[in-house]
Each structure stands twice: as structure tokens, then as C-alpha cells.
Amino acid sequence: MDTTHSHFDVSRSLQAVEAIEHDLARLTANLTECQFQAPPRTGGWSIGYCIEHLTLTGNGFLVEWDAALKAAAKQRLRSEGPFPYSLLQRSILMFAEPPYKMKVATTKPFVPYSRRSMDETLRRFQKMHYELAHCLFASQGFDAARIKVKSPFLSWISYSLGMSFDLALAHERRHLWQAWRIRTKFTGEEKCA
């Protein structure tokens, strides 16, 4: 799927949601609980922590999307588009996509500390993803360029509604790519900690 975006499009973002869910299913197919929980030998997050991080950040975005859509409904900020991205917005989105060249540390609320079973971790992610798709559906007909969404990472930054959706999806692809890199290094001798 081409992830270079010049504008926001609800149907393309919904397709991206579905593609991410398929990628996650492929990633975790035939994965043992130990492999899901095992951190890489070189250090860093396990596959489970990558997915938990996505759930935490997705839930952070959900709060902001809900608030932004409620405010937009009151203000009657409606438009059918188009919703083009500026050069700066396109650059930010490209930076968020894998493969990445530079790691960026997350803020404390989005660091995964809880180790949950693979089933529970995947259930939590799928619940968040269902709600993300619901927000995308709900955004149809709203002005995705004029509506502002506060960043769940840094409260002093805000994005257009459309960009916030595409940024969240790019972030998911980024960490699934990270999880795939972990999986390709498995030797079959991973130990449960």
C-alpha cells in the first residue's frame, strides 16, 4: 500500500486500518507467547510492548478525536474537501513512516510497562482499532483541514484532523515494522522472562 499522502482521504485511511490489522495478524501468526514477550538480544521493546505502545497511543488519540469531533459538530465545521497537506505536513508524515532512520523516544504515558498475554494485548489493540475506524467514519463530512486535534504526546502541538489520522496510522506502521524486525531475528531459543 502506498503510504505517501498529499491529502487526507477517509476511504484510504479506512483501507490503511484494514491493512494494518492484516499485517498484525500475519506478524503474530504461529508466534509463541515467549517470542511475543521476548525483547531483542540487542535491547529494546518486545513485539508485545510494540503493540501495547500502539494501543496506548491509539487510546490517547481517541480522546482527542472525540473532543475535536464534538467541538466541530457544535461549530458546524463541515466540508467535503479536498483536504490537501502542506509541504511541512507531508514531511512529518514521511518522517513517521518506516523504514525509519532515527528513533524518537516516546513520552512517559505511552511507554509500555504492563506485560499482558498475547491474547489480551491483541484484544486491546483490536478494540482500540475498532474505535479508530469508528472515528474515521464519524469524521466524514467534517472539515478535516480546519478541525484541530491536540497531540496526545505534546499538548502544545496540534494537527489538522485529517493529518492526525494519517499520522496515527503511520505511527502504527512504524512500530509494526519494528516488530517485524524483531521477529526476523528469532532463533527459536527465546526464553520467557
Label this structure with key terms.
Four Helix Bundle (Hemerythrin (Met), subunit A); 193 residues; 6 helices
Structure characterization notes:
The protein is mainly alpha-helical. It has one domain: dinb family like domain (Four Helix Bundle (Hemerythrin (Met), subunit A), Up-down Bundle). Helices cover 56% and strands 3% of the residues. It has a two-stranded antiparallel ribbon. Helix 1 packs antiparallel against helix 5, helix 3 runs parallel beside helix 5 and helix 4 packs parallel to helix 6. The protein is elongated.
Rounded to an integer in angstroms, the radius of gyration calculated over CA atoms is: 17 Å
CATH superfamily: dinb family like domain
Run of helices and strands: HHHHHEEH
Poorly predicted sequence stretches spanning 5 or more consecutive residues: none
Apparent shape = elongated
Mean pLDDT: 92
Q: Helical region count? A: 6
Which class in CATH terms?
Mainly Alpha
Give me the count of strands: 2
CATH architecture: Up-down Bundle
CATH-defined fold name = Four Helix Bundle (Hemerythrin (Met), subunit A)
Largest sheet: 2 strands, antiparallel
Distance between the termini: 36 Å
Short description:
The protein has six helices and two strands; from the N terminus they run αααααββα. With 193 residues, the chain is mainly α. The chain has a two-stranded antiparallel ribbon with strand order 1-2.
